[in-house]
Recover the amino acids of this structure.
């Protein structure tokens, strides 16, 4: 059974940093695509960043996160991280860990972790 568990969310002041973690069980993260999505209040869930099995990364097609957020993976810990720097109030959202299996394309989601940025 695949399970994704996020941690690291919380309250942070604008301009500060936060690191989100996602630990997977029941599956090997390095073999698959992992990502972070977020859902702001009243909005749809949107992509923040992805990391593919070969280690390449992709970020949301906007200036909202590029240069501030970094996705990374620790194969030994079977975990994926999202380093969030210079956070802004508009980064306030529930952040979800995401996994898409290579080949079959099965998708899995974590339960989400709340990030709140105060101005």
């Amino acid at each position: 059974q695949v399970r994704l568990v996020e941690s690291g969310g919380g309250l942070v002041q604008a301009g500060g940093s936060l690191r989100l973690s996602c630990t997977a069980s029941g599956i090997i993260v390095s073999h698959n695509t992992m990502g972070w999505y977020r859902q702001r209040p009243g909005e749809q869930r949107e992509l923040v960043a992805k990391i593919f099995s070969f280690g390449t990364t992709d970020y949301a097609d906007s200036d909202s996160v590029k240069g501030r957020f970094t996705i990374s993976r620790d194969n030994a810990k079977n975990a994926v991280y999202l380093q969030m720097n210079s956070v802004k109030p508009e980064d306030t959202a529930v952040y979800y860990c995401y996994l898409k299996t290579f080949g079959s394309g099965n998708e899995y989601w974590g339960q989400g972790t709340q990030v709140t940025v105060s101005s």
